[in-house]
Task: structure prediction
Amino acid sequence: MWVVFYRSLLIFILIASCAVAYGQPNEFRNKIVAVVNEDVITQTDLDVALASVVAEYKQIYSGNELTMRIEEARQEILNQMIEEKLILQEAKKRKVEVADAEVEERLGEVRSRFSTEDDFDFALNESGLTFDTLRNRYKEQIMMHKLVNYEIRERIVVTPSEVTEYYAKHTDEFKAPESVRLKNIVFRFEEGNTESLVRQKADDACRLIKEGRDFSDVARQYSQGGNAQEGGELGFIGKGQMRKEFDEAVFKLEAGEMSSPIKAQEGYYIFKVEEKRESYIRPLSEVSVDVENLIFQEKAKKRYKEWLDRLKRDAFIQIK
Result:
């Protein structure tokens, strides 16, 4: 839930840093596009942050539409970068402390994405970053994260009465769909097995069950699904949560009934409905944590915006 608050903290990352706009004159790349108190944002900074968006948009749009979309993204990302500068400045002003171990943990997470240390060093070199620069950027991210946590998360309280009131006003939002408790048996298309052979295996399994074999026993013995040893148990699944062809077949069945083999891209599936539940309004006791989280998010978004607005009002910001 905190991604929306921290997205501006993650603009400068190792991978994005590989995307500097090469080929532009140095004086253009070093052009100042924004001043935030004593800090500046250069064209290169903005190009790096915008690069992945531009690459994605070029796959989707063209012509005037592409130009318009890129300009919209440019303005949004520049605003995020300005906010990042303000938060970092505030964190430094308030002397937010970051332990070396916290930075090392974050760096370890980055290293773990590479097969070897040499691969990591190569990517770092290609990005144009030094290890010390990367370390400092992660330290700054942690500083900002801590400050936002303190200013927003730790200052929000959700009372039981607020939870009750919210639930009463939004009861329809907590309507659980019709659901079924399912078991399944899976026969996969594999090399050496023709489709007709796989279908025959599925038909044979259906025949065994119709002759009196327990569905779970047949699943344990013959199913190629990951839940075979659990007797094909899938638990409760709500209407609309499965593939369309499965959903349509399963919700026509009554409790205790079994489907015919259903063909999918990877094989044949047989389903059995163990239990059916009609749609119902989930009681507050069941959704109180969800309601509390929703209220928390609403308060956090509001508080975050108000806090950032205060930082902006007290700052000197000039967009070139």
